[in-house]
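FW: tagging you since you asked about this chain on Friday. Here's the raw sequence from the shared folder, copied in full. Didn't touch anything.
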Amino acid sequence: MTPSATRSAASSKYGTGREALLRAVVDVVAQKGLRGMTYRAVAEAAGVNNSLVAHHFGSRDALIAAALQWASEQSIAASRLREAAEQEGSFTEALLGLLLEDPGLQAFQYEMILEARRRPELAGPVAQLYESYVAALTEGLQAFGIQGEVRVVARSLFAALDGLVLQYLAGVGRDEIAAALEEVHQVVLLRRGT
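HL: got it, structure written out here
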């Protein structure tokens, strides 16, 4: 395959523009870790010239922060966390769908969380990642009728979901994760009755 054919194939995989670069960052980090993420690797994955990466983001840290924010937005939208908490039948299916559809998106986020322990400048974006998830769950739980300390319930629920996602990425089987997700959902249903 010629370089231009390779570039066209990659471009069609990710689309075009800034979002294509962010998707490429997610995939590169999910596959190679953050240390494997270079402008060249991202550009190659996106099928563009590596100067375009620098043009859009200016620095590697800005690229990483933008990719982390984009990944959390994509993950929340795909999982429908806000809606799933209030719909009795779709909670487990929505979250399983997220895992099965794009495990690389989740792997990228975990890579970033671990890297934040080594790089303090990532602590803020990682904290924002968690706050985005908790806020989405809080909205869904409020709509579902959960009363009281809804953010505390949301954070506890997200901690369970976060752990289950990590277990899935580590190789725990789909059926075991589905059963655990269903149990988490049953706890939410019980909480609604209080």
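FW: The two ends are 62 Å apart (CA to CA).
HL: agreed, and Residues 69 and 103 are 17 Å apart (CA to CA).
FW: great, closing this out.
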